[in-house]
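Saturday, quiet lab. Running sequence design on the structure tokens for the scaffold JK sent over.
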């Protein structure tokens, strides 16, 4: 990963994980699949963490 992205890459990856997680969560809810719902919630949490890392990198690079 480039040191010149100022956290942008992490923020984008975090948003993508959150969207993917939301889709899994909703699909699991619609199909009554608790395992898929849990996986979606975990992806959303992972995405929020990744986005926070990107925010921290952005703050530190200023």
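Result came back. Writing it out in full:
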């Amino acid at each position: 990963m480039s040191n010149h992205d100022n956290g942008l890459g992490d923020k984008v990856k975090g948003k993508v994980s959150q969207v993917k997680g939301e889709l899994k969560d909703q699909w699991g809810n619609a199909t009554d699949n608790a395992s898929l719902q849990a996986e979606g919630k975990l992806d959303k949490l992972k995405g929020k963490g990744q986005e926070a890392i990107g925010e921290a990198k952005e703050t530190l690079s200023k």
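Notes for JK: Helices lie at 8-30, 34-60. The CA atoms of residues 16 and 47 lie 7 Å apart. Ask whether to fix the surface positions before the next round.
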